[in-house]
Amino acid sequence: MKIKGLLLAIVASFILFACDxxxxxxxxxxxxxxxxxxxxxxxxxxVEGQNGYRYVxxxxxxxxxxxxxxxxxxxxxQGNSNYYMSNRECFGLNYYNLFDTVLTNRDSVVNKYFSxxxxxxxxxxxxxxxxxxMYGVEVIWIDGKGDTxxxxxxxxxxxxxxxxxxxxxxxxxxxxxxxxxxxxNLYSLREKKTASLTNGSARISIITSCF
Length: 211
What we know:
By secondary structure, the chain is mainly β. It contains two helices and eleven strands; from the N terminus they run αβββββαββββββ.
């Protein structure tokens, strides 16, 4: 499916390094991007600026069959250096036509920001609709062994819940910063096994440069 190739290609370009699967303590940062949650009951935390971790958000538009689609990613990953403990653990979110179900509101992330709280539906690739009409969020977790888990292949119950933090307008586009909570089921295609992500929380930013 075209959507899977688009989303996984974005994440794959940022994946680096290695570490054992161990609990990591967490202290919420004041301003940095972060992820915290329990993966299979082990607390996991990644904070931008700590232990070489970096944050990146990118987006792109493409013409697919019936019209223009928007997709983006937010990723916290460890940069390439030798002065800290190497770690393959990585957290990311892929967005596909977020809040836009009928190809009419391509700048919907910014519009939704001004309406208050934001509910992110999980992307469901089993829907029998063209890619450009699919919408939602994919959660990506890469564990200490380098195995990639995604929310695409398992059923989800409640949507992700985020609240606006700030918005900025620049030459590269509009950037929305939000903070929220979520829990979801994950699946590793390579390992053929599931994982649970519970009591998750994150502060992320999303850029929209196409509109």
